[in-house]
Amino acid sequence: MADLLRLEGIESSYGASQVLFGMSLDVAEGEMVTLLGRNGMGKTTTIRTVMGLVRAHAGSIDYQGENIRDLPSFKIAKLGLGLVPEGRQIFPNLSVRENLVATAGNRLGTENPWTMERVFALFPELRERQGNMGNQLSGGEQQMLAISRALMTNPGLLILDEATEGLAPLIRAEIWKVLEMLKSEGQSILVIDKNVDILSRIADRHYIIEKGCVVWTGSSADLRANQEIQHRYLGV
Fold first, then answer.
1. CA nearest 32: which of 216, 160, 195?
2. What are the DSSP E strand ranges found in the chain?
3. Torsion region of 147: left, alpha or beta (phi above 0 gives left; psi -120 to 50 gives alpha)
4. Which of 56, 118, 132, 183 is deepest in the core (most CB within 10 A)?
5. What is the pLDDT of residues 139-177, one digit of tens each?
């Protein structure tokens, strides 16, 4: 499979505080890849650097063979990277329908693109709440809306930062089912989450990061078999 996204030797900082130290990873077409690690190890900074929200001062970020490291975030999004950010960040004073219309587009010319009807079929709860403002939704409904909003951009790569954090078990299960379905349809996905059990069943490969760099990478079978690695880098 051809690489869709490739990071090599990325270094990023917040002011004088460096967070990423030679961060490298890749995601192939149609692959689901995870970024794992304890809190504060640089997972979100990696995503923000990919999206141009944090500037890398070393290394390369290639998307479909194009170096995007120095592009502004809006141009990166236009290339086909769809972000479901940590904390959801939906528009609180827009309705569900308005949140979806605000991001709708098919710049990549995707066959059978995501439309309002398709996302309502994916998350029927949103159809029922389409006239409600964003701040009137539950946390689970907000996360469904955040995922749907990203899908409405018809992304080549869907990126989810803390995909199910703070959600009720039934809602988490629904979101995992949706992500598994998206993967089966060929959607490329990069996901941050703490649920190693489910991720090791539905994702293809995993990167574990510690203090801003990769300390382990492997397949789901490798991860399930390596309890020592899980305990060392993912245990509380």
1. 160
2. 3-14, 17-28, 32-36, 56-63, 66-67, 81-84, 157-161, 188-192, 205-210, 213-219
3. alpha
4. 56
5. 999 999 999 999 999 999 999 999 898 889 999 999 999
> What tokens does 188 get?
């490329």
What's the total number of domains in the chain?
1
Position of tokens 């990919």?
A: 50
Q: Nearest CA to 157 among 11, 25, 8?
A: 25
Residue type for position 179: L
Q: What is the 3-state secondary structure (H, E, C) of 15-54?
A: CCEEEEEEEEEEEECCCEEEEECCCCCCHHHHHHHHCCCC
Instruction: Specify the DSSP class assigned to residue 132.
Output: S
Tell me how crowded residue 225 is: count the other CB atoms within 10 A of its CB: 13
Domain range for residue 219?
Answer: 1-80+189-236
Residue 112 in any domain: the answer is no
- Whole-model pTM? 0.94
Residue 106: other Cβ atoms inside 10 A: 13
Strands 205-210 and 32-36: parallel
Q: Residue written as tokens 């949140």?
A: 99
Alpha carbon distance 22, 3 (integer Å): 19
Could you read off the pLDDT of 47-88 as tens digits, one per residue? 999 999 999 999 999 999 999 999 999 999 999 999 999 888
Q: Assign residue 217 the CATH number of its domain.
A: 3.40.50.300
Residues in the chain: 236
- What are the beta bridge partners of residue 35? 192, 207
User: For residue 99, which amino acid is it?
Assistant: N
Q: How far is residue 206's CA from residue 193's CA, in Å, rounded to a whole number?
A: 11
178 within domain boundaries? no
